[in-house]
């Protein structure tokens, strides 16, 4: 029988507790505990445990599934530990002591410094600088050596077409050779170096070359849909799409014109004859954000996607189109880079303890090793932990992070005029402006906070005013729509909002109090915002609503409404919208898996007039793309919410993010 019981845990809590879930500090020292005494089922109930003392026991290792998601301080002094790699299950760990464990060496110190990204103190010493060196410089040097070893000795051994046995043989030889021949650092760290080299080599094979590591690789997590009538049997279709199929009878057309399957308003009926069929057809349905790579995961929410900007060198550029076809998506613990045309997941970045909410691109001119300057795309990703990850995509390297907020980050965006300026909007009711700096050839960089914008409620969406992106920022928040002056020549570093906008409520009265969960500019002046009342998306004029010469902060101003878009009557929040300014399009998903598309090119000229009148009737969607019937193990996927819809700048591809861990890619034919 285990020595640890519920009663013992409650008794050894500091202070003593009546509920396991309330325990934050626990002292289990000097109990003669062995590894088998640490029952994962019991420990999983300690959801808020932050400090754990296991010193002076008989532990030789840690179980792999203790599930202590909030653990910050761990004392394992005077045990019999032989391995530390299981400590990676405590990613928030900041202080760790394991002195007087005779089997642990300097190599183990380096392993925990690499595995535990938040670790500050190890055996009472501040290891912040050394840990950063281990995670960044050491990793970069070893990655370079591993890549060079492949290029020199193994690249030519892999034919263009090879059998599974050939691939397996080359992988085995490469892993053995690289661990033997790649040497770096002092001999006292040789065990750590071999451990990291093996890890890097496996990642290199998997991500750079597309060679799976398992002897029996899983099918690609991808769901393709054939546009034509299918003659495949259900079994064949299931195999093609990794157990998710599209009902053949629904494949002919997966779009509809306004009113199809929805109650039509008079305005919708009257303009139906003008509706345009944009002929967007589905290309791919991908399940690439699964937790633990599980094909059974249809719960991970996908939140944000943005297309990669083009570089002069034309990386990943399709010569047929004038914009990149590579999109970054995020949700759950991962960020993915996807080729929209082929449906290939080009790269995948994972942080086991994170839930990513937002991604943004910038292009930095960096100095490379021979002192030449070269432009590189950098991806910023942020989420629940309040940390911004900075990823150099071409190098496949996350080179740094910014601890921007103590609460989750809802959204991020870069300035279009200053490539190092990044805005982060957080649940702490603040929007921060950062200068992320430019990394040198060793990826050293310095980030600094330039500005803090104080909000009255949580900011959900932010948008820089296109005509003056260095002066004004708009934010859609839980409690309304706000504007700030962000000009940096002012001395005030922390600023209140300059204006809050009023919109009509359901009764026709003007109100500032409403959740704005969709916000984007259609052009230099027209703002699109959502959620002031159900079933409505507003288009309004920035220049006619906000007087930039007005004085004083915290003004209340009425939004000058140009038009209303007809949309779903759902009261569900956080189904956000986007725009394609070059094509005058607005996109918004709904609670039934449909995408509402509005072509507003016939209206924008009239709106640009200083005396442009408000459209009397709600503008119906040009087209509604209906969600196809996807099946997993023969069962239909239901209750699909469309969290986000984004097109590339030329509206060639449309990327749809869902609540069921599926990224849908449509193409305008």
Describe the structure.
One of its GO terms (molecular function) is chromatin binding. The chain is an alpha+beta fold. The chain is built from ten helices and 42 strands. The chain folds into three domains: 6-104, Ribonuclease Inhibitor (Leucine-rich repeat, LRR (right-handed beta-alpha superhelix)), CATH 3.80.10; 130-208; 280-309 and 324-668, Methylamine Dehydrogenase, Chain H, CATH 2.130.10. The strands form nine sheets. Strands 1-2-3-4-5-6 form a six-stranded mixed sheet, with no helix packed on it.
What is the number of independent domains? 3
Class per helix and strand makeup: alpha+beta
Mean pLDDT: 83
The percentage of residues in β strands lies in 25-35%
Under the CATH scheme, the architecture of the largest domain is 7 Propeller
Percentage of helical residues?
A: 10-25%
Assigned CATH superfamily of the largest domain: YVTN repeat-like/Quinoprotein amine dehydrogenase
Task: Count the E strands.
Answer: 42
So what's the oligomer here? single chain
Low-confidence stretches: 212-275, 313-322
Q: For the report, how would you describe the main beta sheet? A: 6 strands, mixed
Contiguous helical run count: 10
Strand order of the largest sheet: 1-2-3-4-5-6
Coarse morphology: globular
The third-level CATH topology of the largest domain is Methylamine Dehydrogenase, Chain H
Radius of gyration: 27 Å
SSE order and pairing:
Elements lengths: L5 H7 L12 E3 L12 H4 L7 E3 L19 E3 L19 E3 L8 H10 L5 E2 L2 E2 L1 H26 L10 H18 L8 H19 L13 E3 L9 H7 L3 E3 L8 E2 L9 H6 L8 E7 L15 E6 L18 E6 L2 E6 L4 E7 L5 E12 L5 E11 L3 E6 L4 E7 L5 E6 L6 E6 L3 E6 L12 E7 L4 E6 L7 E6 L2 E6 L8 E2 L3 E6 L5 E2 L6 E4 L4 E5 L5 E6 H4 L9 E4 L1 E7 L10 E4 L4 E5 L5 E5 L4 H5 L14 E3 L4 E3 L2 E2 L5 E6 L5 E6 L4 E6 L1
Helix pairs in contact: 3-6, 4-6, 5-6
